Amino acid sequence: MALSDLTLYDPFEGMRFGPEQCFLCGTPTNPHADVVPVFAPWLMERYQLAERPIQLLDQSITTYQNLTIPCCARCRTQHVEPLEAQVAEAAAAGLSALRALDEKTLFLWLGKMFYGVLVTELLTELNPLIKPRYPLAENAQMFRRFQAYFQTLQALRVPIEFDDFVPASVFILEADAAQPALPFEYDDDLTTTVFSIKLDNVVITSCLVDNGIIRQAMRGIYQQAQRPLHPAQIAEFKARLYYAAYLFNVVPDYFARPVRPEDDHVVYDTLIDDVTGPIFNPWENSGYGQALLEMWKPWHIPLSEIMQDPTQPLSFLYDAQGNPQAVEAVAAMLAQRPEDKSRLN
Q1: Which residues make Cβ contacts (< 8 Å) with residue 114, sequence separation at least 6?
Q2: pLDDT by residue (tens digit) across 69-124?
Q3: pLDDT at 58 over 70
Q4: How far apart are CA 36 and CA 115, in angstroms?
């Protein structure tokens, strides 16, 4: 393999996020021809997303098909399209096939979409007439987090071995097919690098820059969630993830080992530099309650009910005794509520 194939690219050096260079390698591109959709053609076709409106971070509205990122022909044909084809095949086969994909593949697939949304916001910052929602220039830690994330996303183009670590926490949940729900959903939080997508009865959610620490912290809950879940239970799991990512207090550093002429891949080591402070800020039920309130909006559950017991916020994953709650029991409890049916349209 040519040494140039192992050369890493960092668009954060000089903030090179415009349409004139490939998002993966920096090669000059034709803004009108060299692009890939943020959400792949197979996704848009399968879930009729092309014309569906999507609200961007500056509150403007576009459509899924108009959300693109610059990509040279080489990266598109040799890296992006093969990745999408691999995930599309697994998605067509269903839950077990998606679970059989290695975590690195899922991380890169989610990461490519996350980066597309991120670039939209970064380009917004270049428009002096729009006040950005997440001004990077004012948040050094956020800038470092995005830069660290892109270092690991380079594994989509460059053969990279992560030495004794995984860059992200990836969770795969099964939605109970008997419960009414949209076949496709997507949400993210750029500030915490969390991305979630629903494909029929499969929900894949991830914190993309945590070295798998959140998955370790949630391993017990995740193990008990390996069963068909009600949409409200999935929303609760996501609230735990989003809040944990909000509390995550460090940014991993990544170091590429020097490449020798005979090498055919790059090896990354990682280090969490600030070992003096806590990895997580303290958990506060009041903050977690706000996360639940946001995730449970379709069921109109007020904060007063969520926090009726301040020491034990409302849960649908677990019953009062702390045992995993059956889907049927959750469905019965929620059947009495005026659920917002617009989420199913």
Answers
A1: 149, 188, 193, 195, 208
A2: 999 999 999 999 999 999 999 999 999 999 999 999 999 999 999 999 888 766 66
A3: no
A4: 12
β-pair partners for 290: none
What's the pLDDT score for residue 125?
Answer: 59
Question: What is the mean predicted confidence (pLDDT) over 191-197?
Answer: 94
Closest CA to 69 of 127, 13, 11, 14: 11
- Look up residue 259 and give its two tokens: 């490449």
HSE-up of 220 (CA within 13 Å, CB side)?
Answer: 5
pLDDT of 340 reads 47
pLDDT in tens, 111-159: 999 999 888 766 665 554 455 555 555 567 778 888 999 999 999 999 9
Q: What is the pLDDT of residue 273?
A: 66
Q: Look up residue 271 and give its DSSP letter.
A: E
Largest CA distance in the chain: 67
Residue appearing with tokens 């509150």? 59
Quote the CA–CA distance of 74 and 62 in Å, as a whole number. 27
Q: Which residue in 32, 31, 37 sits closest to 68, CA to CA?
A: 37
Cβ atoms of 179 and 94 within 8 Å: the answer is: no
> pTM for this one?
0.91
Give the long-range contacts of residues 269-272, CB within 8 A, separation 24 or more. Answer: 269/163, 270/162, 270/163, 270/165, 270/167, 270/211, 272/211
CA dist 41 and 81 (Å) reads 10
DSSP 31-95: TTTSEEESS-HHHHHHTT-TT-EEE-TTS-EEEGGG-EEE--HHHIIIIIHHHHHHHHHHHHH-H
Taking the domains of the chain in order of start, what are their residue ranges? 1-158, 168-248+284-345
Pair 224, 260: CB distance under 8 Å: no
Contact 121, 128 (CB under 8 A): no
